[in-house]
């Protein structure tokens, strides 16, 4: 039994001896054995899969962000388009509403214009519209100036020579100030070689003469800060100041109130009976109407009566009407030319003028 085991051990030792020798040789030698990546296919495959596994969620997030941004852009564009459409529609509605609101005024203007006839000349700008009409009455020839003021500086009243006590013709005043039209204003009184405006006179919102309470049927007439005609008898300065007049002058008498003729004082019915006349009036839409009647003298035999001027104001649809200085003072300038026929043979030098600007 022991012999058999010993024999087997020898046999195994002899069989392993070559391998043991090789191992000892490898351990003692400098030989380096390198294996290629192909020797580890599973590891390479695992390594190549790692980047895809790491990048895929980020890539998916970017795709979703891009998709969200595109949707947001489209939504904003739709909102902008809707906003623009809404604005355009609102502008259209506003324009239509404004057009509808203007229709009554347009119809009203057409009606009052038709009563005056066909304009002989028109001045139109962003500041005003001034229309000139020729009128042939039974006893006199007259002119109408209808003015629509569109801005605060379209009309003013000036002193002759821009100084109290001085005087100049309406044509000279219009030319000096660059006005396109002009009409004589209030009455006057001469003294010490000078010509002073009659009664209360306001220029550029300032009193250039002291306030005078009404006397002898005198009244004040002018425009306020809203381009509205203000006129009448103001017992106190406070009552006149409450109307906020920008400018105005004084004369006599009041002709029309609310479309109704006012009693003409006996003194002014026949002193003179007929004469060249200038009156100022307004319409319901605040347009102004000036009527200037020709007469070849101041003796009472030519021109218009105050009653006839009242009738004309009523016929043309005026609301309030006031008589301005007449006789040789009546002056109408339009586009640099004298339109009426002054009874003096030429324009009279006056202390106050209503002027209109283009």
The outline comes out as elongated
Estimate the helix proportion, in percent. Answer: 25-40%
- Distance from N terminus to C terminus (CA atoms, Å) equals 147 Å
> Unreliable segments (pLDDT under 50, ≥5 consecutive)?
1-5, 43-50
Pfam family, one: NAGPA
InterPro entries: NAGPA (IPR018711)
Domain Phosphodiester glycosidase: 177-357
Protein name: Phosphodiester glycosidase family protein
Structural commentary:
With 358 residues, this protein is α+β, with helices and mostly antiparallel strands. It has 2 domains: 48 residues; 240 residues, no CATH class. Helix content is 36%, strand content 26%. The protein is built from 6 helices and 20 strands. An 8-stranded antiparallel sheet has the order 1-2-3-16-15-17-13-14, covered by helices on one side. Strand 2 and strand 3 form a beta hairpin. The N and C termini lie far apart (147 Å). The N terminus is likely disordered.
How are the elements arranged and paired?
Blueprint: H1 2-28, H2 41-116, E1 121-124, E2 128-136, E3 141-149, E4 155-159, H3 170-177, E5 181-184, E6 188-191, E7 194-197, E8 202-203, E9 206-207, E10 219-224, E11 229-232, H4 237-241, E12 245-251, E13 254-257, E14 260-261, H5 266-269, E15 277-282, E16 288-293, H6 306-315, E17 321-324, E18 332-334, E19 337-338, E20 352-356
Brief summary:
The chain has 358 residues and is α+β, with helices and mostly antiparallel strands. Helix content is 36%, strand content 26%.
């Amino acid at each position: 039994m022991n012999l058999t085991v010993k024999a087997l051990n020898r046999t195994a030792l002899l069989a392993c001896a070559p391998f043991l020798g090789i191992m000892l040789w490898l351990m003692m030698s400098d030989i380096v054995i390198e294996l290629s990546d192909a020797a580890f296919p599973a590891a390479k495959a695992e390594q190549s899969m790692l980047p895809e596994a790491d990048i895929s969620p980020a890539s998916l997030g970017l795709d979703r962000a891009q998709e969200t941004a595109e949707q947001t852009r489209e939504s904003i564009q739709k909102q902008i388009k809707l906003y623009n459409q809404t604005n355009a529609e609102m502008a259209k509605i506003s324009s239509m509403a404004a057009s509808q609101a203007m229709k009554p005024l347009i119809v009203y203007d057409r009606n009052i214009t038709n009563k005056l006839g066909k304009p002989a000349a028109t001045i139109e700008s962003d500041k005003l519209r001034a229309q000139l009409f020729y009128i042939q009455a039974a006893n006199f020839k007259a002119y109408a100036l209808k003015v629509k003021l569109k801005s605060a500086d379209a009309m003013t009243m000036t002193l002759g020579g821009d100084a109290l006590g001085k005087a100049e013709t309406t044509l000279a005043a219009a030319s000096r100030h660059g006005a396109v039209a002009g009409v004589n204003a209030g009455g006057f009184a001469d003294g010490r070689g000078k010509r002073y405006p009659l009664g209360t006179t306001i220029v550029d919102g300032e009193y250039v003469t002291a306030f005078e309470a009404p006397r002898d049927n005198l009244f004040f007439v002018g425009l306020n800060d809203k381009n509205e005609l203000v006129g009448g008898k103001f017992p106190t300065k406070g009552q006149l100041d409450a109307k906020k007049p920008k400018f105005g002058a004084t004369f006599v008498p009041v002709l029309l109130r609310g479309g109704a003729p006012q009693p003409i004082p006996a003194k002014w019915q026949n002193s003179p009976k007929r004469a060249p006349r200038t009156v100022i009036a307004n319409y319901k839409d605040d347009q102004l109407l000036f009527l200037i009647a020709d007469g070849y003298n101041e003796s009472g035999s030519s021109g218009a009566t105050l009653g006839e001027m009242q009738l004309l104001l009523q016929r043309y649809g005026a609301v309030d009407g006031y008589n301005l200085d007449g006789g040789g003072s009546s002056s109408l300038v339009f586009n640099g030319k004298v339109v009426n026929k002054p009874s003096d043979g030429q324009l009279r030098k006056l202390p106050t003028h209503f002027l209109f600007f283009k």
